[in-house]
Specification:
This protein is of the alpha+beta class. The protein is 25% helix and 37% strand.
Length: 583
């Protein structure tokens, strides 16, 4: 700050302060200019060093990384691959009635068994109780069957209300159930005296009278019942018009006749003997429409017979266990699993009631209580036939539609050897699962089982989707692509390090190593390219020498380094080839 004296005037003091401020601004400006110059100098030096480093790095490695390859003829295919764990195929369950109790197992997991080998024995008390309960259930059912044997299905089908027959679906000799399955009814009745037809129109209104002409030319007078959303419902008499006939309303509107108020005539048993009412005939409530034969037994009687057959089969199983001393293997194979059953699951004091309740309602009263005979079974073992195994792999949504059952797959199992095994796609599950935004499905591949192949081993699968024989092939690194074309270089000048002889090509199938060329090259032509692995190593070394971090390897698809990428650039021009060569 300038020094002042009492003798100086105000103007002199002001001038002195202004001069000091100017000197301070000048010093700040000079300092800023110097800093800008220094920053620019550092940028220039950095760019120069970067260029020299890139040039030096690529110049030193370019000769070593440039490769040449002849266009050759061979086979190429596209594949879908995945991995999973082996599981046993076609496992068979060994079951017993839940009221039985295991006394002892005679096999262990992993044991090979033949059909008829003893799997386990059961306690004599539980076996006796189960047999006694089943016999009691059979006795109770027999009483119901005797009572139901006097019931019969009616041998006539009658009209429950008055109306007019408009459709007859049966003929003499037809099975009632079959007609019901095919047509949903035996006959159709019209209840209110009208047939109806719906037509699209913007000229008719409710209450209008129109002429309805049948397909045979017969004219009927119709009345518009209603018009909803541009659709008019026109009513005509049901005495005469044919159900399902295509009619004309007015001059040009067409539609199909249906029953305005419909009743279905139904049945559930018997055979049609005679048809007592014909199409278009008016009938009264109680009139016979059909007569039937083969109605000797009722549905309840038939159901009881089916239940008895189930109980007979269960009793036969218990008798077999009693005679053979235990539960036998139903087929040959390997014991995959055993299930220990709790001896406290049933007891002699409650076993009889529990068994009867489970299989027949537990009552000797001849009521509907005995109509449930579904027995409860417990799985005690599983047997693998030891013939085939399967592996299930995850399949990306982009590949799932290319898979079909029956396709051939190659399966390798590292735990065994480097050998491969031929498999077949046996199941494709199109139920999607999503994780982190990725949708996938599953496919199951089945292979023949060989020695030492165990459930749980990891298996790798390759499914061949499409293949071409006698294809012209080049290394995938030799192909360069833009958004509109694909090309290769057929010449290379070692003295200048420049590629030339660019040839546009058409590509077919490709995999991780080779690509099919369908036009543009011939067998024996030579293509030049840069090895992609050496390019990535060179870039990684360059970043390392500059003090940066390669991050575990240079990503050829990165958009860093001034916008260079592994795909086409935004302007549609040439892109950095995937092999790292020139454009």
């Amino acid at each position: 700050m300038p020094q002042t004296t009492p003798e100086q005037s105000g103007e002199e003091i002001f001038a002195q302060h202004r001069s000091a401020r100017k000197r301070r601004k000048r010093r700040i400006l000079i300092t800023a200019i110097v800093l800008v110059v220094l920053i620019l100098a550092l940028i220039v030096v950095g760019i120069t060093m970067l260029r020299r480093s890139v040039t030096s790095q690529f110049s030193s490695d370019s000769t070593d990384s440039v490769l040449s390859a002849e266009v050759t003829t061979g086979s190429i295919s596209t594949t879908v691959s995945g991995s999973g764990t082996l599981t046993a195929e076609d496992e068979e369950s060994v079951e017993m009635l839940s009221t039985l109790e295991i006394d002892d197992f005679y096999v262990e997991e992993g044991d090979a068994v033949e059909e008829g080998d003893l799997i386990a024995t059961v306690t004599s008390a539980s076996l006796s109780t189960a047999m006694s309960d089943l016999q009691s259930s059979l006795d109770a059912l027999d009483e119901e069957i005797e009572s139901a044997s006097e019931d019969e299905v009616s041998d006539t089908v009658t009209a429950s209300v008055s109306g007019r027959v408009k459709a007859v679906y049966v003929t003499e000799g037809d099975d009632v159930v079959t007609v019901m399955y095919n047509s949903g009814a035996l006959m159709l009745l019209s209840l209110d005296g009208y047939m109806a037809v719906d037509v699209e129109t913007d000229t008719l209104a409710a209450g209008d009278t129109v002429t309805v002409t049948a397909s045979d030319g017969t004219e009927y007078t119709g009345t518009v019942e209603k018009v909803v959303s541009g659709v008019a419902t026109v009513l005509v008499t049901d005495n005469g018009p044919t159900y399902g006939d295509t009619v004309t309303v007015g001059d040009s509107l067409t539609g199909t006749l249906y029953i305005h108020s419909e009743l279905k005539i139904t049945g559930y048993a018997g055979t049609v003997d005679e048809i007592e009412a014909s199409e278009n005939e008016a009938v009264d409530a109680g009139d016979t429409l059909l007569t039937l034969t083969d109605t000797e037994t009722s549905a309840n009687y038939d159901s009881l017979l089916e239940q008895r057959a189930e109980l007979e089969e269960q009793l036969a199983e218990l008798v077999q266990i009693y005679k053979e001393g235990g539960i036998l293997a139903p087929s040959a194979g390997v014991i995959e699993s055993l299930t220990e059953t709790s001896s406290s699951s049933s007891s002699s004091s409650t076993g009889s009631t529990a068994s009867a309740d489970a299989m027949s309602g537990g009552s000797t009263d001849t009521t509907a209580a005995t109509t449930t005979t579904t027995a409860s079974y417990t799985e005690i073992a599983t047997i693998s036939p030891d013939v085939s195994m399967s592996v299930t792999i995850s399949v990306d949504e982009t590949d799932i539609l290319s898979l079909e059952e029956g396709q051939t797959a190659t399966v390798t199992i590292d735990s065994l050897s480097d050998d491969s095994y031929e498999g077949t796609v046996t199941e494709i599950d199109t139920s999607a699962s999503s994780s982190s935004g990725v949708t996938s499905y599953t496919a199951t591949i089945t292979i023949d089982k060989v020695e030492n192949m165990l459930a749980g081993m990891t298996a790798s699968v390759v499914i061949t989707i499409e293949g071409v024989d006698d294809a012209l092939l080049i290394p995938v690194d030799a192909l360069h692509q833009t958004s509109s074309t694909a090309y290769v270089y057929t010449e290379y000048d070692e003295s200048t390090g420049e590629y030339s002889g660019m040839v546009e090509v058409t590509v077919g199938l490709s995999n991780s190593s080779y690509v099919e060329i369908t036009s543009g090259l011939s067998e024996g032509d030579v293509v030049y390219y840069t090895d992609s692995s050496s390019t990535e190593d060179s870039m990684a070394d360059m970043f390392s020498s500059m003090g940066g971090s390669s991050g575990g390897g240079f990503d050829s698809g990165s958009s860093d380094m001034g916008g260079m990428s592994g795909g086409s650039d935004a302007g549609g021009g040439m892109s950095m080839p995937s092999g790292g060569g020139p454009n």
